[in-house]
Amino acid sequence: MDIDPYQSEFFVPGDPVPQSRPRVTRAGGVYYASRIVRYRKAVEVAARAAQIPLRDGPVWLGIECVYARPKSHLKAGQTLRPDAPAFPYHKGDCTNVAKGIEDSLELIAYRSDDQVIELSVKRRYAKPDEQAGAHVTICDIEPLPDTIEKRARSVNRSWTVAERNNRNVNRSQSIQENRMIEYRDILRDDEHEQ
Q1: Does any domain span residue 78?
Q2: What is the pLDDT of residues 130-187, one digit of tens each?
C-alpha cells in the first residue's frame, strides 16, 4: 500500500469524551475534569505512537467518533431494539468532541490549532464487533513551496503533488467545493444558452 506523505491517520480507543468547560477553584485556580484530562492524554499517546509528523501549514482534520451501544439498545438475543436511537445525539455535541481532540494534537500534529482550517466530525454507534473510539485523519490542505521541495528530495516518496491531486487521495471534495463546481456548471449552461 502506498503511503501518502500528506495524510496521517490514527485511532484512539474508548468512547470519545467531549471537552468540558474549565472549572475554577475558590483560590482562582483553573482545572478540567479528570475524565477529559485522561482522554486528552490518550489522544496524545495514540498520535505519538502513530508517529504523526508536525505540520507547519494549513490542515484538514477529520474525526469519526464511534460509540459503544448501551446494553439497553439491545434485545435479549443481542439484536437491536426497534426503538433504539440511530445516532448518539446524547454524548456531547460534535464541536466539544472535536475541541478536545484538536487541543490534544497541538504541538504533536500541528504547531497551533489555528492551522485547522477545515474540520469534519461524524458521530455514530459501533457496528457489531467494532471497537469504540475515534478515527482521526489529518491532511495537509496545500503544501508550502519549501515543503514540496523537501518532500521531492525525500526517500521513498510515493506520489508527486500532481498525482496526489489527480487521485484525490486525501479527502472528498468539501460542500463548498461542490457548490462552486455546481455554480460554475450553471454559469457554463447559461453561456451556452445565450
Answers
A1: yes
A2: 899 999 999 888 755 665 565 555 444 455 555 555 555 555 555 666 666 665 655 5
Report the candidate in 34, 63, 32, 36 with the shortest Cα–Cα distance to residue 133.
63
Residue 42 lies in a domain: yes
- When divided into structural domains, the chain yields a total of 1
Which residues, in sequence order, are CB contacts of 176 under 8 Å at separation 6+?
Answer: none
The residue segments making up the domain with residue 154 are 7-193
Domain membership flag for residue 2: no
What cell does 186 get?
450553471
Which residues lie across from 128 on neighbouring strands? none
87's grid cell: 445516532
> pLDDT-based confidence at 1, cuts 50/70/90?
very low
In order, the DSSP letters of the chain are -PPPTTEEEEEEES---PPPPPEE-TTS-EE--HHHHHHHHHHHHHHHHTTPPPB-S-EEEEEEEEEPPPGGGB-TTSPBPTTS-SS-TTS--HHHHHHHHHHHTBTTTBS-GGGEEEEEEEEEEPPTT---EEEEEEEESS--HHHHHHHHTSTT----HHHHHHHT-S-PPPHHHHHHHHHHHHHHHHHHH-
**Is 73 inside any structural domain?**
yes
pLDDT digits (tens, 9 = 90+) for 55-99: 988 899 999 999 988 888 888 777 888 888 878 877 678 899 999
